Amino acid sequence: xxxxxxxxxxxxxxxxxxxxxxxxxxxxxxxxxxxxxxxxxxxxxxxxxxxxxxxxxxxxxxxxxxxxxxxxxxxxxxxxxxxxxxxxxxxxxxxxxxxxxxxxxxxxxxxxxxxxxxxxxxxxxxxxxxxxxxxxxxxxxxxxxxxxxxxxxxxxxxxxxxxxxxxxxxxxxxxxxxxxxxxxxxxxxxxxxxxxxxxxxxxxxxxxxxxxxxxxxxxxxxxxxxxxxxxxxxxxxxxxxxxxxxxxxxxxxxxxxxxxxxxxxxxxx
Amino acid sequence: xxxxxxxxxxxxxxxxxxxxxxxxxxxxxxxxxxxxxxxxxxxxxxxxxxxxxxxxxxxxxxxxxxxxxxxxxxxxxxxxxxxxxxxxxxxxxxxxxxxxxxxxxxxxxxxxxxxxxxxxxxxxxxxxxxxxxxxxxxxxxxxxxxxxxxxxxxxxxxxxxxxxxxxxxxxxxxxxxxxxxxxxxxxxxxxxxxxxxxxxxxxxxxxxxxxxxxxxxxxxxxxxxxxxxxxxxxxxxxxxxxxxxxxxxxxxxxxxxxxxxxxxxxxxx
Lengths: 269, 269
Known about the structure:
2 copies of one chain form a homodimer.
Chain A: H1 31-55, E1 59-66, H2 72-79, E2 88-92, H3 98-101, H4 107-110, E3 119-123, H5 132-135, H6 141-160, E4 163-171, H7 174-186, H8 198-203, H9 205-219, E5 226-230, H10 234-250
Helix pairs in contact in A: 1-10
């Protein structure tokens, strides 16, 4: 499947507001068929993950960023449904601890990067250090610009050392967020997820869109591209993400390790 | 479902060899029905895990120990199929690194214990430090006995601090292991898993059964019981484990967190 339309080309002029949040191109008007396709992708991902683990050579890092309610948690649950939890790790980055703050901003992130054969999903990431920090004025424009460069250098280093990096921005509209927040507020089993402080970042929506536009423009690179994932429709979102991940894994041209020499002659007593 | 038959009572005389490896009691002669039941358990586990995560109060630690090929990896893949990878972590303990060896034997294990709301599965564990070490004579009987006590103290500490601990020994026969090793040797996609060094521990089968008997007798406690899981049949194995885990989680009497005060009046603009 062609997911190039969602990939941000390095150095190209880019504005987040020019991307559609409600695009449903991959569903193509046929929900049932799209569900079947998603299930096929799940099976494909399961096999590719097993191969990645067996080969033990490559590392896959998936960075998820988004406004609240855009579906980071649900993406992890739905796209990775059935994939062996032994080979997939999720690292969630919340407000930094005192110890984390006493280190550079890449320190806690580097510690969680994937080992050979592993998939690691960052639920939020080092990008918070050029987003929430910038929107609230905790860092100035120069520091922010310096950090873009530091992030690019860091990600290139990871790539040079065998890590495939996919960065996904889950793109929802402000109206869609409103609906989802109201649903959380009014559904008993979802109320625990309602955090009144989410409303603060909602009030800064425009500033966030600008900060994301700046950060993505500055850090979508050949070795660590950003994808803008239309996320008003969960089905479209899951289809785009599953395709991007499966394609990236297939590009690695992996193979099962060769059996040890003379395996067939080994006796089991 | 009654899984008490598989639980080792503290202080009771126990011999591993008296437990059946090919028991299929939970299948009860009807494989199709057993599959349906397993699927129902999977759905139940998924809901319980979400509740554990939402409540964010309890911690669940599952210790898996077994001889090679007994199904530790496959248990993780099959029992936790579909459970949100965000709330389930797997920690695999292999031969210790130089840094790990320079610390006490519980150091690397403690670092991986679950946080509130998490399930952590130990694929091998601190028990290797009273098993492989004892069978090969790297530690003497006194050191081993001291370690049983240290393990009990450590696990009681974890339990006192909100951790539910389930320890599962996957019990296969020596004949069953032979069949599985031969299958690995002769199936192209499984050959990478065949490790000739597994044959060394197979040759020490009797010593291992004794070491497991000793360790389990000394460390099956009220706060951290051992279960002997018949594992010649994968279906029986998965049924026993799924039941043990679901029952333990249900015993926690969890509930979704209360919504914040005045939630219904919060406006989303």
